[in-house]
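User: quick one, sequence for these tokens?
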């Protein structure tokens, strides 16, 4: 007999822009003059979602599995990171069933990319588009994000865990 448990996780990430890099958000290549500076490809959308998923199952954060000190993974695709995190969830009989993602960005304007990013997330996480919310807010000109020097992302995920019920 199986018992179903629903958990919630929250994740956050931020990266600075760097000229000459590609901008990946949610696994999608977004046209822009700058990409994200990071040890990986800097896809802060996937990083925030992965941290949220790991939080839901109490399994740490992505830096524990992909430390920035590991030179062998410099420039690694965040999709590869995400696949590893999904394998960790699978070992715990857990699956992401819903996500709500909010970017904080001045540039590029995100609204034209909402559907592209949602479809990319649908493909990566294998959940229906109707279970993926993606939106963006500006930072009203405040700080590095408001000056167009950085991006931030917040993610909340719902995770379903199938546990074997104990016999009485």
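Assistant:
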């Amino acid at each position: 007999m199986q018992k179903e448990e629903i958990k919630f996780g929250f994740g956050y990430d931020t990266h600075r822009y760097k000229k000459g890099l590609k901008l990946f958000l949610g696994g999608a290549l977004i046209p822009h003059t700058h990409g994200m500076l990071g040890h990986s490809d800097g896809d802060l959308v996937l990083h925030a979602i992965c941290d949220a998923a790991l939080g839901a199952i109490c399994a740490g954060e992505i830096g524990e599995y992909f430390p920035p000190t590991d030179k062998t993974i410099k420039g690694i695709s965040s999709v590869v990171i995400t696949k590893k995190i999904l394998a960790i969830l699978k070992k715990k009989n857990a699956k992401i069933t819903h996500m709500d993602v909010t970017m904080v960005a001045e540039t590029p304007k995100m609204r034209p990319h909402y559907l592209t990013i949602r479809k990319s997330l649908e493909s990566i996480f294998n959940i229906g588009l109707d279970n993926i919310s993606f939106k963006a807010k500006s930072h009203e000109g405040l700080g590095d994000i408001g000056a167009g020097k950085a991006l931030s992302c917040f993610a909340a995920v719902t995770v379903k865990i199938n546990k074997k019920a104990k016999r009485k």
